[in-house]
Amino acid sequence: MTNPPEPTIPPPLPGEEASWEVTLPIGQRLRRANLPVELVAGVVLLLGYCALAVYALAAAGSSIGDLPTNPGWVDGTAIGPSRAHPFGVMSGLGVDVAAALVRSTPWDVAIVGGILVIALLIGLFVGALAGLYEEGAVDLFLTFWMDSVSGVPPVVLVAAVFFTIAPHIQSSRFLPAFVLLFGLVLWPYYARPVRARARLVADSAYVQAARASGAGRLRILVGHVLPNSLGPAFAQVPIDVANVFFVLSAFPFVACYGGAETPLFGLLSPLPHLPFPEWGYLLAQGACNGTSVIWTYNHWWMYAFPAAVIVLFGFAGALTCDGIQKTLARHSSI
Amino acid sequence: MFVGDASTGVYALDLSHNGSVLWSDVLPAASVQLDVADGVLFAGTTAGQLLALSESNGTSLWQVQLNGSVVQAVGVAGSNVLAAASDGYLYAIAVASGTLGWRTYVGVPAGGPSVEGGRIFVATSSGTLEALRTSGGIVWTSSVGASIATAPAASGADVLVADLSGNVSDFSTSNGTLQWRWNAPAAGVDDSVHATPAVDPQRVYVAFDSGSVRAFNRSNGGLLWATAGAYSGFPNPSAVAVTPTGVYAVLNGILLLVDLNPSSGRTLFESYLGSFVFTSPALVSGSLFFGAESGCVAAVGSQGAFARWPVSGTVVNATDRAPLAGAFVSVGGSSTASGSDGTFSFSLTNGTYVITTFLPGYASSNTSVVVRGPTRGIEVRLSPLVVYRVSGILRDQDSGRGLAGIAVALAGPNEFARNTTTGPGGFFLLAAPNGTSVLTTPAGPGYDRSSLAIVVAGGPVFGAVLLAPPTAVPTDARTPSWLYVALPAAALLAAGWYAGTRELGHRRIARGLPPAVLSRFSFYITTRVLLLFAQVAFLLGLLYAVTTLLPAALSGQALCDTIGTGCAGCGWDDLLCTAPLVVHGFVGELVDLFTFQWGSDTLGQLTEPTTTFLGWWLPNSVQLGVVAMALAVGIAYPAALVAGWRQGGVFDPAARAASLVGLLTPSFLLVILLVGAVVPAYVHAYGELPYGLLPGPAWFVTHGGQPSWIGVGYQTNPTGFPLVDGVVHRDWAFEQIVLLKTLWQAAIIALVYVAVFLRHSWAVAATTSREPQIGAARARAIPERTLLWRYTGRRVLPFFVLTFALTFPAFLLTQSLVESLFFDQGVGYLFFSDLTSIATHPKVVEQGGVLQVALFLLILLTLTVNLVADVVARYLDPRLRSGAG
What we know:
The structure holds 2 protein chains of 2 kinds.
Chain A: H1 16-23, H2 26-33, H3 37-60, H4 71-74, E1 89-90, E2 95-96, H5 97-132, H6 137-149, H7 154-165, H8 174-202, H9 205-212, H10 217-229, H11 237-258, H12 279-290, H13 301-331
Antiparallel strand pairs in A: 1-2
Chain B: E1 2-4, E2 9-14, E3 20-26, E4 33-37, E5 40-44, E6 49-54, E7 60-65, E8 70-77, E9 80-85, E10 89-94, E11 100-105, E12 114-116, E13 119-123, E14 128-133, E15 138-143, E16 153-155, E17 158-162, E18 168-172, E19 178-182, E20 198-199, E21 203-207, E22 213-217, E23 223-226, E24 239-243, E25 246-250, E26 254-260, E27 267-276, E28 282-284, E29 287-291, E30 297-300, E31 309-317, E32 328-331, E33 334-337, E34 343-348, E35 351-358, E36 365-371, E37 375-382, E38 387-396, E39 407-411, E40 417-421, E41 427-433, E42 435-441, E43 450-456, E44 461-468, H1 482-510, H2 520-555, H3 559-563, H4 575-594, E45 600-603, E46 606-609, H5 610-645, H6 651-664, H7 667-686, H8 697-701, H9 722-728, H10 732-769, H11 772-779, H12 784-821, H13 827-835, H14 850-876, H15 878-881
Parallel strand pairs in B: 31-37, 38-44
Antiparallel strand pairs in B: 1-2, 2-3, 4-5, 5-6, 6-7, 8-9, 9-10, 10-11, 12-13, 13-14, 14-15, 16-17, 17-18, 18-19, 20-21, 21-22, 22-23, 24-25, 25-26, 26-27, 28-29, 29-30, 31-34, 32-33, 32-35, 35-36, 38-41, 39-40, 39-42, 42-43, 45-46
Helix pairs in contact in B: 2-14, 5-6, 5-10, 5-12, 6-10, 7-12, 9-10, 10-12, 12-13, 12-14, 13-14
């Protein structure tokens, strides 16, 4: 089989390419790039969250790790959303919901971001490697590891492992350890779809062409296989955002809801100290203090707003990932 | 006394015989309102009937039909019975004959009529108070200026009305002039009044819906006191009643009975009634009666039953009357210790009690005491135990040599205890009272614990011989040693088999036969099954390493403490010493797991072998899981297919967005909101809480008791599946509840799971709908419906099976969560409750711990489901089956 002759492109005139790049305003360039609407919406939302995080960091300064609690609200009567408290006040914890959510933003963005970066970095690399060298050592290891680890829900695995080692590490290292552990548990879920895709990419004409033209293994992996195999991995992102927030909120919820019957559940938190500004923790406290079988006492704002912030964050992630997937699918061919 | 229930029953209770039911009857319509006069019981119904029943046996005397439903109560004035009906008329009907005496239009009544001093008073919901003569004419009308929702209280020259704005008004009975009025400081929802005020000669008591009780000066309306309100609970009416001994309130219709001091409002006593109370208490011959939602009627005596009297006494030695300090004294559930002068005191209500007294070295005593008021000077006499000499020798069990310098403890009856140390030759001397005593020596250097029971029968015991077993080298009987041979042998056999089949394959090819005896598909299944065990072992090894070894290493514990297979006492840095121990411990664990040696578990009051728990509750979980799975598949399969098929339509983004929201909202929040939505309705419909999979104990109390085919673990017999067993025993009421609870919980599980499933399966349907054969079929003018359900449906089915396997852990997690939040008797609840015990037991993978077993079962189940799904998907899809995919 002979490779098709490469189309000859005339060399650009001096300064031509540069001037094209410079003269086109950024708005037009984006429009010309024809990005999917999901990607734009998702990135805008995520940038909004990041801006909020930066604002919170700047506004809170060194007290970023403390919830702005007010003892007067702890046992007080329910204060619903109003002009002074746009998201209402959470009794029990005694915080203004909006202020607490803003204070939490940098932490949650960092937790979720850290976990996803670790999982994606390992998962993409190992997945691409396994797909490229089918039935090689990495592939066999990944397949076996993935098949085995999928026997336990990642949430249970993280909870079981983290909460057994937690008593032995300093509480200030809880969050980094939690992020690292979660990333390590999740990476196979990214490697598997990448591997499936990379198997197809590895057989494609352009990879064979690169191989024939003497490209090194690393260059084929990083330059050809990896970029063309990332797409399917992104479908997993929203599921893992949900998993992360499940662990962060379910255990504090049971600790609060069970009260005296589950006193030790309070220990099952990856947060360095309690109370701590973190969305999942706020949701747990809100669901615990705000829900009631009697409608009059069902203070919806205590749990609806934290839940909405989490859902919107996951939604932004999902939109971005769907957009990335679409963009990658548009530019890649097998 | 007479009680009507929420359906159509009316019951007569005998108050002099513990409230036993004298007779009961069924009326033609619901909601009975009762009153009694001259041996006749009147009942008004929502359907507008007024019935007269014989008080003694419930036979119907007469019945008349009114135009509206009978609003609240029926009062008797003279020879007439009064009924306020919703058509706005007050009817007076002759008690003897049931003929209409007169009727007067008063407006829609807020409650029943109140009769005092030859006048009839009716409050209307529009806020007027009407006073009528007993002959029916209206004497006067006054208005309170707010809606009223309860009957007025008429007493002497006053008629009192509390309204929904929280105002209390006192009118003169003679001409309706307002005597005084108390205006609510800030009218709110919580401060309305739904209960008739209670009146005594000096005060008026009003229970507000906030749970606050206020007392007013009856002559001028001055506020005397108010109890703290803001009792958050059910927003149901509070009620208050006056008895000769005090003022009692039911706050917010909930549970709490409060005994108030009439002059100060101070709470004297609080009692939880154990059930919801929706109606006002009734005062009959000095006792208060509450109709509780559990269907029980509770009576509170007024003869000081709630008063607690001081009861005190002294514990003395029966021989010399010297006071005894430190004796344990207990009465009726509470206990104390006697002081240095031997005195003790309790506070008790009226009744007969047994004071149990106990002091080591004395015979315990039971003293009976009758409390009818303050009781002092009770003398409890304790007889000292007579002790006898107990002597003997402690010997080495193997050599028979006497052992000196070892502690010997004697534990006798009544916590009699003595200690000593063996002297030369192992001799010891102790004392013990009559009865059985146990001699023990602790485990010490070189010797294990030893014990001996002796019986003292009125004389000394000589020559008791205690045998101390020398400490043996720790051996582990649990792990069969043959494993060390069997495992390498199995590995060798597998390698040999692999090489052999290869060789055989070459020979078969040489003869022109297919290379393998097994087809490619069969070979795939075989390898996957063999791999399953390797995967289970691998995963358990991973968990073992991370959750058992890592914490032990981090905390620097000795290895022997962690694994429990004996202690070599080597440190973590000595790999040659620790490695065999680690392997030994892990292999032992695997053997335990695969041979059903699963230890025992505790949940609530039950401590049972883990296998027993699983035997009881696995069917419950399986039943719930199967129903939930059926519901989930029924929703998710068509939804994913249609959403993936019609991309760009409305259904597709809507379904995807809904599934994303469902996925991202933590499932416990969804579950708790969905649970909360049904609790009030369910409680009203069935009189119990909607938790568990079976009806609760309260339900059984009102339905003939717990049947014999439901066991201690609340498991049903004979099959264990509650739905099946209900049918087997033809208990349809039971079946209905179980079906309702199962369906409801299954629906919640399905709802959460469908969100997860859709997220995965949507893309498959979307990809398939773009495949060339679909386009080709469409070109052949095959209808879209056929394309969707037959072509695409069949094509995506294998992938849906794989998706199912992929999301199966999420399903199990959701079911466990739902089981836990519903407190179901299920494996998921067991698993979650054990997951919570991590904090108490830092070792997750613990020998015999049920969490370890649960993780093992979870892993085995999920991997098996994965395997089956892979095999089924391959079988369904010919392309995969041939090995092309």
